[in-house]
Amino acid sequence: MRVSRTQAAENRQAVINVASRxxxxxxxxxxxxxxxxxxxxLTQGAFYKQFESKDDLAAQASRRAMESATHRWSAATxxxxxxxxxxxxxxxxxxxxxxxxxxxxxxxxLGSEAARQGADVKAxxxxxxxxxxxxxxxxxxxxxGDEAGGKAMAILSTxxxxxxxxxxxxxxxxxxxxxxxxxDQVREAVTA
Length: 192
Description:
About 75% of the residues lie in helices and about 0% in strands.
């Protein structure tokens, strides 16, 4: 059965959305094309009509994951526009976010794997990380861009590291301690 161009475009977006979530949950190599396509309600045969390769899908899914994460930051700040950094800290450095394997931060979920991927996947992460830094930079530091940029990098590194460490330990108390310590350090960095 022939699929319309509109349906093909919708199918492509569905595959990218599903891959964005499943890659975060299982890793780039933790799921095969058959299961990715099944997750999108399609057959494996449709894959190569939509994408050049799994690497092509990984790059597009990474871009979508980073866009999704940035939208979450924007939604958090819209809910608390007077204290945008506090809004982001509240959701990002939380036990709820720690548990969000499929919808959580892609840098936490896939950062070490992305470092071993091709240039297109890295470019997707780089664009998203730059957006994170742009947002953080607008909330911290002085008018001097270098200082705000350096603070933003330190804050992002602290936040990502804390969520990552909280996910690799079994002890919920230790996980919470990592998140609490990062929260304290980020707030301290802003006032310094």
